[in-house]
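mind reviewing both lines:
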Amino acid sequence: MCKNSPNFVAKHFQNQYKNHMTIKSLIDAGVKEEILARLETLTTASKAQWGKMNVAQMFAHCAHPLKLAISSKQHKLTWIGFLIGQFVRKNLYDNKPFARNLPTAPNFKVADQKDFEAEKTALISLINRFVENGYTPLEQKMHPFFGKLTAQQWAISQWKHLDHHLTQFGA
C-alpha cells in the first residue's frame, strides 16, 4: 500500500489514535453529571471486568484521591514519588486511558468488605465537594507521589481515575 494513499493514511491514523480518549475535567458540571449518571447504573451485582475489587470497594478506592485533593492538609512528596513520580506524572492527564491492573498505592488499596450504599453516597458527596470547591484550592497542590500538579491536572486526573474504574465495572 502506498504511503500517500488515503487507505494507508486512514489506517495509520486509526492505529496511532485507537487508544486515545477525549480528556475531560471533573470540575466541568456536565462531566460531573456524566460521572454521577454512570455511578447510578452500578448495583451490588455489578462485576469487575478486571482487578480484584467489588463495586463497593471500588467506590471506597475512588474516594481516596478525591479526599487527597480536597484536603486542606499540605502533603509532602514521598521519596518514591521523588524518584519516579515525575517520570509517570504525565500519565495522569494525558489522552491515553489508564492501563488495567496498575499497581495501587498501599494506602489506596481497599481489601475489606464495604457497604455499597454508604460508599456510593460518600463518593457522590466527595465528587460534589470537589466540583463545588473549583480550581482555586487545587493550584500547585502537592500530590505525595506525582509532585506539584496544576488545578487543571488535578481535575483531569480525578476524572480519568473515576472513568477508569467506572469502565472497569461496565458503567
Remarks:
- Helices lie at 6-17, 29-40, 55-70, 79-88, 116-133, 151-168.
- The chain has six helices and two strands.
- Residues 116-133 form the longest helix (18 residues).
